[in-house]
Write a structure and sequence with these properties.
The structure is a homotetramer.
Chain A: E1 6-7, H1 15-22, H2 25-30, E2 33-38, E3 41-47, H3 61-77, E4 85-95, E5 103-113, E6 117-128, E7 131-145
Antiparallel strand pairs in A: 1-2, 2-3, 3-5, 4-7, 5-6, 6-7
Chain lengths: 160, 160, 160, 160
């Protein structure tokens, strides 16, 4: 995730992705930020605070999963046209170490881009001092809904 | 999930589970409530509000997954002694319908209770008018950490 | 899985499903049989023999997963037209008890039937004496490929 | 998977892993071979034949999953002492392209090695002409059962 990535400041690239992210009430509520985008890649970060914890004071698995979910969904959405919608069909996540630290970083990427389905993966790292520690890894299936703009709320439920 | 279930008001039953839930900052931040507990069963509910949405205004998959995660974890924790800790190792979640409605209900249950690992499942329903619609289903692996009280924050990272 | 189920002898029902199953070389190689079919339901059985074991002599997880995979795929295929193909996108399987016994039975069912995707689950039981013991449970995503008959081998790779 | 890998001919390294693999009746029945081992790494290969196919003549997903399952399990087992047993708790597999080709190669690796649980991943490639094509990717949880030699069949069922 280096040369191709655009920082979140570069508002021109992947406009439909940034706009969709901005409409996710949950990402704002968690304090999550879209920090980098590339073709088939997306990074999301969130800072630690008491509102995001599980019973030991670490980041809750739900926060880890939420930003992994959005990071894979938006990694996939970078490869879809602006007049389409993106839908997470399913994912699996393994928690490999406690998310104990000050910052959580999810990096999503597309493993295989089919017309209808994008198979994606995300790694989530927790920053503890200077170190980035892998705390979770996920594998997900994302669906493209062509011709259904993400902006207007659909009258009818999208039929998968 | 009928006769055996204790409402959240019955503070005597499963005290260690209720206490642990109360310490999860994220559950409070989402407005989630522990609404029922039984041996190997747990129900969590959360009301819709703008802070919990994805880009179309439905419940975000991260909210769905967060309460499914906690519901399976605490279903497992009802079957562990009070001086143990509970750890989600991994889960998979399938989103089977859009979470469009006013209320989200996660019902977790233990499928198989081993000494170290509990295999659990959750169904998540969205309430739309009078109807409960299945919107997600999950399958998870939960680990018991014996002799590590959930209350005091461990100095050292729990070693799986 | 009661009243609606047709035994494997009832060759009239779900003809395209039976035909497709019969073309799976692996099912024959494992000695697996399609023992029941219903709308959105499928049962597959396989008898124990040394060729199907893991290192302790139990059924190998690969056998368990193979018949769970086919049982969910064909459960989904009962709900698709005969001129379509069926494709397993992904699944997750939890092994909840050792598959120690003389017979393995996978029962697949459709949880939610969308136009393109069918979300399915399977339970796998091992028969040990008179008892059926749950030894694995799975959750899978199955895709319908309309207008691509299952019979003729496609010239080009199906594009998901 | 380069410098550290020992070819299957090097019988001295990881003796307990090779022995356990040799006792898996299913691997022999499929014609699968253990082709490389390293610390936390394992490669398994199987050649195409009619006995291993799904309905279109490609490798059946059950074969793909079986060798991915064994490759992750034995990758984990390289990091366990010889007097322990290895148990697959669960895995998820995504099929990202049809397994159309003459040879299937599963490469398993340990992502995180805890005392009790090893979190592992596998990529499965199909060889079509000269090209290796990624056809599946999996994520799994493997358990170590210390003090239970893999060789003797346990009298009692291993209690997880």
């Amino acid at each position: 995730m280096k040369s191709k990535l655009h920082s979140a400041k570069n508002a021109a690239a992947f406009h439909h992705v940034r706009e969709s992210f901005a409409r996710q009430g949950l990402m704002k509520h968690l304090g999550a930020e879209l920090t980098a985008l590339g073709s088939g890649e997306c990074e999301i970060r969130v800072r630690h605070r008491a509102e995001l914890t599980q019973q030991h004071g670490y980041f809750h698995g739900g926060v880890t999963a939420s930003i992994a979910d959005s990071a894979t969904g938006y990694a996939a959405y970078t490869m879809m046209p602006a007049d389409s919608s993106v839908l997470a069909v399913e994912y699996k996540i393994n928690f490999v170490a406690p998310a104990e630290g000050s910052l959580l970083i999810a990096r999503g990427r597309v493993l295989r881009s089919g017309r209808t389905l994008k198979i994606c993966a995300a790694d989530v790292f927790v920053v503890n001092g200077k170190q980035e520690i892998l705390c979770a890894t996920s594998l997900s299936t994302i669906m493209a809904l062509p011709g259904q703009s993400d902006i207007s709320r659909p009258r009818h439920r999208p039929v998968k």
